[in-house]
Write a structure and sequence with these properties.
Blueprint (H helix, E strand, L loop, with lengths): L2 H11 L3 H10 L4 H28 L2 H23 L3 H27 L7 H32 L1 H9 L4 H24 L6 H11 L4 H32 L6
Helix pairs in contact: 4-5, 4-6, 5-6, 5-10, 6-8, 6-10, 7-8, 8-10, 9-10
C-alpha cells in the first residue's frame, strides 16, 4: 500500500463525519451499531479482496470455481443465519442452490453472452460476485418466505396431502409465495435502476475503459443474469429441501 493510497483512504473515511455527525446530534445510540456494521463490512471486503487478488494472480479456472464454492458456502451461512433457520438442516440446500444457480447463469453469460474470447479470472470473479450478491439477497427473501408460510399454513399443506395431492402439488402455493417474494422487489426496483444503482455501475465501467454503449450492454446482461440466477438458486434450494423432506419436521 503506497503513501498516496493511504492518504486517499483517509480522505475517503472523512466522509463518515457526515453520518456520524448527524447521528451524534439526533440519535447517539445508533452510532455504535453503525460503527460495528462498517467495521465488519470493511473487514469482510478486505478479506474478499485479498482472496480475489490471490485467485487473480494464479488465473486458473478450477481455482476460480473453488473460490466460488467457498464464497457460496460462506454466503449460504449468512443467508441461513439471516433467515434464523437451523444451520445443520438448511446450510447445504442454500449453499448448493447458490453455487449451482450462480455458476450456471454465470457460465452462460461468460460463454454465450459477453463478448470475450475465453474465460479468465478478470471476467469470472466480477460476474460471479455480482450474481452471488444479488442471488443471496433474494434467497434471504425467498427462503425465509417459503419456510415462514409453510410453518404458518401447515394445516393447508397437510389438508392437500390428505386429499390426494402429491408433495409437489401441496408445495405449489408456498413456492409461488416465495417466488413472488424475490420477484416483486425486483419488479418494483427496475423502474428506479436508472436513478439509483445503474449510474454507479455505469460510471465504474466508464472509468474502467468501456465505451458508453458497451457499458450499457454489460449492465443489461448483469441485470438479466441477476434475475435469472436468483430464481434458479431459489428453485434448486427448494428442490433440495423437498428431497431431504426438511419441511416435514
Amino acid at each position: 500500500m503506497t503513501t498516496t493510497l493511504i492518504l486517499h483512504t483517509i480522505l475517503a473515511l472523512l466522509l463518515l463525519i457526515l453520518p456520524f455527525g448527524a447521528l451524534y446530534l439526533l440519535d447517539r445510540p445508533t452510532m455504535k451499531p453503525l460503527a460495528v456494521a462498517l467495521t465488519k463490512g470493511f473487514v469482510q471486503l478486505l478479506i474478499f479482496s485479498i482472496i480475489a487478488w490471490g485467485v487473480y494472480k494464479v488465473d486458473n479456472l478450477w481455482l476460480s470455481i473453488g473460490w466460488l464454492l467457498v464464497m457460496t458456502v460462506w454466503t449460504g451461512f449468512l443467508v441461513i443465519n439471516k433467515c434464523k433457520l437451523a444451520i445443520a438442516s438448511y446450510l447445504f440446500p442454500a449453499s448448493v442452490g447458490l453455487f449451482v444457480g450462480v455458476l450456471l447463469i454465470g457460465l452462460w453469460l461468460l460463454v454465450a453472452v459477453l463478448p470475450i474470447d475465453h474465460i479468465t479470472v478478470r471476467w469470472f470473479i466480477p460476474v460471479m460476485a455480482v450474481l452471488l450478491g444479488h442471488s443471496a439477497a433474494m434467497l434471504v427473501r425467498g427462503l425465509g418466505n417459503f419456510v415462514m408460510m409453510l410453518q404458518r399454513n401447515r394445516g393447508q399443506y397437510d389438508f392437500m396431502l390428505g386429499n390426494g395431492a402429491s408433495q409437489w402439488q401441496a408445495l405449489i402455493p408456498f413456492m409461488r409465495s416465495s417466488l413472488l417474494a424475490i420477484l416483486s422487489p425486483t419488479i418494483a426496483n427496475l423502474s428506479a435502476l436508472a436513478l439509483a444503482s445503474l449510474p454507479l455501475l455505469f460510471c465504474g465501467m466508464l472509468l474502467g475503459g468501456f465505451t458508453p454503449i458497451n457499458a450499457f450492454a454489460i449492465m443489461l446482461y448483469a441485470v438479466l443474469g441477476c434475475i435469472a440466477s436468483s430464481v434458479l438458486s431459489l428453485g434448486i434450494t427448494v428442490v433440495i429441501i423437498k428431497y431431504f423432506n426438511l419441511f416435514a419436521a
